[in-house]
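Researcher: Here's my situation. A collaborator sent me these components and asked whether they could plausibly form a single complex. I don't have experimental data yet, so a predicted model of the whole assembly would be a useful starting point for our discussion.
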Amino acid sequence: MTAFDDLLAYDHTTQALGQVAGRLGWDQETMMPRGAAAQRGEEMAAMESVLHARRTAPQVGEWLASIDADALDAVGAAKLREIRRSYERASKVPADLAATIARVTSTAQGKWAEARQADDYAAFAPVLAEVIGLKREEGAALASGGDIYDAMLEDYEPGTTGADLEAMFGALRPGLTELRAAILEKPAPKGVTGQFDEAAQLELSTVLAKAFGYDLGHGRIDKAVHPFSSGSGNDVRITTRTNPDDPFNCFYSTIHEVGHACYEQNIDDAFLLSPLGRGVSMGVHESQSRIYENQLGRSRAFTGWLYGQMRDAFGDFGIGDEDAFYAAVNRVSNGYIRTEADEVQYNLHVLLRFDLERALMAGDLHVSDLEAAWNDRFEVDFGYAVDKPSNGVLQDVHWSVGLFGYFPTYSLGNVYAGCLNEALRAAVPDLDAQLAQGETGQATGWLRDNLQQHGSLYAPREVIELASGQTPGPSPLLAYLQDKFTHIYDL
Amino acid sequence: MTAFDDLLAYDHTTQALGQVAGRLGWDQETMMPRGAAAQRGEEMAAMESVLHARRTAPQVGEWLASIDADALDAVGAAKLREIRRSYERASKVPADLAATIARVTSTAQGKWAEARQADDYAAFAPVLAEVIGLKREEGAALASGGDIYDAMLEDYEPGTTGADLEAMFGALRPGLTELRAAILEKPAPKGVTGQFDEAAQLELSTVLAKAFGYDLGHGRIDKAVHPFSSGSGNDVRITTRTNPDDPFNCFYSTIHEVGHACYEQNIDDAFLLSPLGRGVSMGVHESQSRIYENQLGRSRAFTGWLYGQMRDAFGDFGIGDEDAFYAAVNRVSNGYIRTEADEVQYNLHVLLRFDLERALMAGDLHVSDLEAAWNDRFEVDFGYAVDKPSNGVLQDVHWSVGLFGYFPTYSLGNVYAGCLNEALRAAVPDLDAQLAQGETGQATGWLRDNLQQHGSLYAPREVIELASGQTPGPSPLLAYLQDKFTHIYDL
């Protein structure tokens, strides 16, 4: 056994324990009895303390120091890269600070929920200020003199900086605001009407999950308040939700999570429980969920098939033909909430958060000015005022739990999806004919072979370039949206 | 912080991790996708390696050596006792041997299942011989020169020896065989007829669980192939199963598991995630499941109430009145299978296994002679021959997975339940009037206050003596059975 073998054997156990912690998280959102929350907190803390101790074990540092990276093949070098990144990241943050952040954000999440309920930003501001103070401290420890926000981005999107995103999003924003304005001058398409039986929604959502290649032999679908995907390798579970008035909520949540889950399920078996056996970044993950959900799932061809499925399941729901259904699925309308936004407006919500959180981390924006800054920016991009904090600065949980640098990966994922879609369409010219039959096999197979199977073998940007054959940029996404919505809205 | 405080803090994390491992086990039997088994094996092995390392950590040995037990109060001394037992137990078995046992028994379980399916003891014998060889080696390491079987019993029933059980069971066996023979000379009561809807069975089983005090705010009920209870403290889950022909399978499995679960749920909150926060032994655990299931659940009074519930749920099922229902619930009939046996015959099945496994461990019985020894003993106690190995020596999984010393705790639990029932009946004279209304609150409250709340504070025998006011012995169980079945069968 070489030092590298020893390191990999040690890391294998750490990876397996990480999966266990993930399974606990899934249980918490789906199965856990409501009275078990406090005990679960202790159980999760115990798992985290074990994981932290393993990630920062002095032995790992010694192995890392003694291994000659140049003697490794590409797979070995990638594994070493991932283990080193995890070790250095975990070692840089003092244990006391990590524990304080865990404790404070756990409380802050509850305070945020109360403040949102009460529509009272002032009640949340001091808590948020404390979280931000701690996260800036953590960011400074991680940055080692560099940019704090860039150091935070490394947790979610290694290799991408705030400046990269600023350039990318700067090019995206004018095109999106312009497209949005043009669309909203047109008459709104008709939406669905009636009530949609929950059991029938869940049944069709399972049909959709299978249609997109989700393997229920290595996964399962449950209901949860917030849809998510959880786990890697051979146990990747998703959740969905239902709304009796709005079946698209269930169907497109399912397809979105199936995109995340298929990425994990389709990683090369050789990488199982290794540092390469997970999706490589939040942005690349989101590119998969988004291309499944939007470029495939909300395409004219696929919605034509889905229309027939829905007619079979629900009878008449107020939409007369496939074209009207396509317009209903892709309807653009005014709204305040990011998670409910359509393809055109979604990124405007994210770009707003990116600019604000970057300013918060840089110390250029104070918590006391955040609500006003949010409302001003919203009015500029959307053309109307935020009516209450729960529709504005209090709508998302992220900042309360210390997630800074996470929001931009949503839009980065959309940008990546745009690039991948362009390459996919070129590689599979008759894709629409297949989608019109509810067949996604060639599309999802192309994504599996060109991207998903690699897991964390390549860096995020690298794997997108490899798969799409281009340097990732916003033009393909913009072109796709302009083309799609010009057609739907007759712009 | 004293050394004792440090030890308790360390142990708290270990206890929490033990709960996590238990939760994974629950998931495996209820929720896990079928294709995730191999990965789950890796995840469980990772958890076990972490738990083993913590239980045998040199630091724990140092703390144990430096703590003055005489300076502790009763609760502290009990915690120290439990941690010391766990440390010494884990430290005595060489890691290599423990790993070999884990590997071999994992394979042996599969071989057992195949052999049972094929009714071929010869195919299983060599595997069993290997398991027994390893377990004797482990037993010798644990026994430190003492009796191997006694050392194994310590894992399940600390403080009870093979000689204790031999004396207890020796006094039980003649009374049981005699009672059995007398009953089987009488005409058999009528059983239920018809098909019982699964959803209605599960609904009524939830009513029963609540009636026995199971707290669904800190637990949940799911279906599984084998009913079990899992977890401690505020997250104690049970499973049940259904059989369309036999609703009693579901109802009494549920009540049985509720007995186990209530024991865990009712332990003093102050002991949560401490070494005292779990049931103290398998025998005491089984005393709770059995007294819920049998002395309460199969009593004339409670079955009278259940009869009404079942009539409401299922209409006519071929039983005309409460007395006939009571006889049907308690029907004694010939059979080969322990898990399907009635109250009278169940312990005869267990006593057989106890004598055989003790002889196996002592080296007095060889694996090649086991099948014949089983069949001979069965014919003596039951009066007819075993027809095939799956109805005899191959029926239980226990030995294949290395569980030696586990079987007798089933009967010990019944003996304990007999003692507890005697004391309970004296303490709550009008118990039957309550049970006849489906009210178990005074009975389960008495068990909670006198036994369950103590968790592992007292040694097993000690807590039974404390609660029942007597030295545990078989007489109360025998007297209860003789009285009950004399009445039902008009002996």
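Model: Some features of this prediction you could bring to your collaborator: Chain A touches chain B at residues 12-13, 16-17, 19-20, 23-24, 27, 31-36, 38-40, 42-43, 45-47, 49-50, 215-220, 233-235, 237, 272-273 (CB under 8 Å). The two ends of chain A are 66 Å apart (CA to CA).
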